[in-house]
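Renewal narrative, Specific Aim 1. Our central claim is that a sequence can be written position by position from structural information alone. The example that follows is taken directly from our test logs and has not been curated for this report. It begins with the structure tokens describing the chain, in the order in which they were read.
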């Protein structure tokens, strides 16, 4: 084990080689069994992890480097949440933690798997006494996740599905606008901030919703990433007309300054390869496709 600094005031822990990292708990989060939560024994990473950061892991020496947002941590148990039975390399925490100082009322919006990433942020804010409205959107009922956890981590929870098979019918953008307008109409304090995590296109339209109201909106980006320490430049994004690296400058950015057109274009660069990979039957998910 060694503690490494990348020269950007961002220390992280790199643990690899001799020690393997045991998955102490594994459970599916939805009825479709396509999203699984893995609790990994990594005490040093758990000790330093904060909401909004991410880790990079490899299942073995031949495995790919996979960046995954921190979906939770337990400092007492020394665990962080991710996948496999044992993991060879586990690097983190990486990226900047989500800023929460001075906030009194926020709306956290999660889209699909993004809800798992947004959950620890909402949970920590709720524990700090910040008023949290959580809007969780999914395509359909069979992929809804973290129902009880999201309810416990928010003062108000709105769950919606595209087809209306669970919760309200509609999109996160609709319900965010409704909440903002309700605050105005009823004379309630407006959101200090909106935090959105989900598909790029969803975050783009959410930014369009909040822009006219002047509500600062933060999104968490997960572009193509290799080393996670600012050296490869693979995760570059354009923010405020400048090139930023999601791994060290983010992953959180001001949604009103992000160049979504270039972001979405770069995300589709390996679409053919991703479509091919989607056909693969993964043993780790019990033979489920797209898991």
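The sequence written for that structure reads:
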């Amino acid at each position: 084990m060694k503690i490494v600094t990348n020269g950007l005031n961002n220390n992280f822990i790199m643990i690899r080689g001799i020690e393997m990292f045991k998955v102490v708990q594994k459970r599916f989060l939805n009825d479709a069994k396509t999203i699984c939560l893995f609790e990994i024994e990594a005490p040093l990473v758990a000790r330093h992890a904060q909401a909004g950061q991410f880790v990079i892991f490899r299942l073995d020496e031949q495995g790919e480097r996979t960046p995954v947002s921190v979906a939770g941590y337990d400092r007492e148990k020394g665990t962080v949440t991710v996948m496999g039975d044992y993991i060879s390399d586990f690097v983190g925490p990486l990226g900047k933690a989500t800023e929460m100082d001075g906030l009194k009322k926020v709306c956290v919006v999660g889209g699909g798997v993004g809800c798992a990433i947004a959950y620890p942020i909402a949970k920590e804010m709720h524990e700090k006494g910040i008023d949290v409205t959580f809007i969780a959107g999914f395509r359909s009922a069979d992929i809804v996740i973290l129902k009880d956890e999201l309810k416990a981590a928010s003062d108000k929870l709105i769950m919606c599905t595209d087809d209306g098979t669970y919760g309200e019918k509609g999109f996160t953008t609709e319900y965010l606008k409704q909440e903002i307008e309700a605050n105005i109409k009823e004379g309630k304090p407006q959101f200090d901030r909106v935090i959105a995590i989900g598909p790029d296109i969803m975050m783009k339209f959410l930014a369009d919703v909040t822009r006219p109201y002047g509500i600062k909106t933060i999104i968490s980006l997960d572009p193509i990433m290799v080393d996670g320490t600012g050296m490869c430049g693979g995760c570059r994004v354009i923010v405020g007309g400048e090139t930023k690296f999601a791994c060290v400058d983010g992953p959180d950015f001001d949604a009103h300054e992000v160049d979504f057109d270039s972001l979405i274009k770069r995300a589709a660069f390996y679409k053919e390869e991703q479509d091919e990979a989607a056909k693969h039957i993964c043993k780790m998910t019990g033979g489920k496709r797209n898991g």
